[in-house]
């Protein structure tokens, strides 16, 4: 089975009116010296509307593909023919181009769609977009070769597209053509004009750009232009990336890399309503997986769930590191390196890792490292603005002076490995360079312990200097300006990083204290996780006293597909018996699974459905609310979503069977949070299940305690 390759371009903006761009575009036919492979084109079909507003033209284009001689011989062709259909609408100022291959159409299917449209915020600018798909069914056993050739040709043509338009614009300008009048409706005869709306007579367009352009506006466009300033430009519904923005803020990407970013971003907008990471962060996950969109999507989704679970988005604003960390953690931000990357200095050799782990536990240490990484992301964004070019990673300088056997204390190394693992998974491609200075004799031992946990891509960025080598050629000065080399490395710059030193034993805590605290920190999250099995949904009871309350929910489907329901019952369900779980009771401690609806209850008699079921796919984030109409008991239910059998035959389709086999052991996982709010306090949208913005994560700090007491009271009941 061949892979279907897809391409979606960013929006390319030409700062010229649509009509002028069209004049330039038309010049590339019948042949174009800038595209040597475009040998010829013949018009096969042409149609114009009476008022000349619509012009459809179909051409058969002859291409001389740059392919190995042998392949052409095997395929038995010298040229490849494409059919291109251009539909120009002068009234709406749009050109739509559809192209497909005629040669080998039973073996290879190529479809391309391009459009030229008016820029939504400036009617004198033109936007260009293109998308394409390539599906190679079979090609004499040379499928992958053909795919490579096709992709190579295609991407080089994408790059040329812009040059070609600019080349012809320049040519027009040299001929003195810098303005092409807009289309205007033909002047109608008397009898007709009485029936149509009374309108000022349209004078033929004269070459006065300002008035002429305003003259030919349709009512719709006038409405649009007047309403657009009030709307924020950033939040346009089809929030798209344009090519200039990518170059300025994200870097030089190849057309296929741009396409991956745009497609992954689109998928996130559709599934993770309203809460999607910044473009540069999405790009880091793509880079970490060599732009394999499926692999990148998988690690990105895991990371988004992790961020949500541990409230990482709020860590910089809400978490204050304990004093011990502020005094004894020998690391801090220090200006930037020669490439403009933020520079983080860590005096690991001066740091008492054992003391810090004993006084704080792994959790607080991990949390501190996370806050450093979050700060790093923020600084990259800031430096991108300051230096006028994309900066997406930071440089880390680690000074090992003073490193000794104490640093090889096992729990300390274990903590370090776990921290590295979490950082690797959630902050990929953020380390631009790691400079390790003054590495002592024990260093190779530590390195062998740690290096297997470090991603290959990251490992390439390590530079290790023993003793004072960093002062010599190829040393620190190649990467960091002389003015900011820290004092402790013999530089002139005062470095504010704490000196570290031994943590006093009086601050050590017992294993029990740390254990209790550790667990508390790790699960200090307003979300609860639940497992859902085939035939064993997870149900949560909410008792409503005041009829007009609002039940709100926010959940992530971590694994599998589920159906979400909400029911109402006048009578209280029996408290769940833990042992009724039977086989499922061996699941992990995090996977609670509770059924409340009695097997003998009947829908419609004992309880009723108050919202239509919602099917939620793996990886989705769902937020919503329900305004209660009656007091009583409400049950939220997450149920296993089984594949529907094919309606016609009632036999499961092959795809469905395969899909169901992939859901390992028929277990789904959900992470959820619910809260009841009095309707007068509820500021969300009242559109029930449709509501998609999570207002409650902001309230989380205030509600943690109440939601926990609330759930415990339910269980005790």
UniProtKB/TrEMBL annotation:
It comes from the Eukaryota. Residues 190-239 are annotated as: Disordered. The gene is Sec14l1_1. Residues 221-233 have a biased composition (Polar residues). Residues 523-676 form the GOLD domain. One of its GO terms (biological process) is negative regulation of RIG-I signaling pathway. One of its GO terms (molecular function) is RIG-I binding. Pfam families: CRAL_TRIO (PF00650), CRAL_TRIO_N (PF03765), PRELI (PF04707). It comes from Tichodroma muraria. This is SEC14-like protein 1. It is found in: Cytoplasm; Golgi apparatus. One of its GO terms (cellular component) is Golgi apparatus. The keyword Cytoplasm applies. Gene3D superfamilies: CRAL-TRIO lipid binding domain, GOLD domain. PANTHER family: SEC14 RELATED PROTEIN, SEC14-LIKE PROTEIN 1.
